[in-house]
Amino acid sequence: MSDSLPPCPECRGAYTYEMGALLVCPECAHEWSPEAETAAESERVVKDAVGNVLADGDTVSIVKTMKVKGAQSALKAGTKVRNIRLVDGSGDHDIAAKVDGFGPMELKSSIVKKI
User: Alpha-carbon dihedral of residues 114, 45, 68, 84, nearest 10 degrees?
Assistant: First the structure.
């Protein structure tokens, strides 16, 4: 086992090994190409609370009321958020947008639904 080889993408097993041009997992017998793995890592898919794939520029609505730090009122369920941007935000916040009445903020994809 080499420390430089990635874990198996199927079972996350740590005992991967090289077999020719492929990587193989002895635990689940999954075979994959190292080039395919790097392409999959660069292709990030962000899904909303119900499983719809989100893209830059989409319009979403908030699915549950949430408190906003530093604001006097809460962000209510059903609030529409237009023209979202997918980002690598702080923690698990992966959406950046301007919300009417609140200004720019980062949201979690798990609390929005694509319209």
Answer: -60
**Which tokens is 90 given?**
């702080």
Dist CA 61 CA 84 (whole Å): 11
- Supply the pTM of this predicted model: 0.61
- Residue 42 tokens read as 């660069």
Structure tokens that stand for 23 in this block: 């990587």
Tell me which of 3.30.1340.30, 2.60.120.260, 2.30.30.40, 3.40.50.300 is the CATH number of domain 59-114: 2.30.30.40
Which tens digit of pLDDT belongs to each residue from 54-69?
999 999 999 999 998 8
The pLDDT tens digits for 29-38 are 989 888 765 5
| CA separation for the pair 41, 24 (Å, rounded) | 18
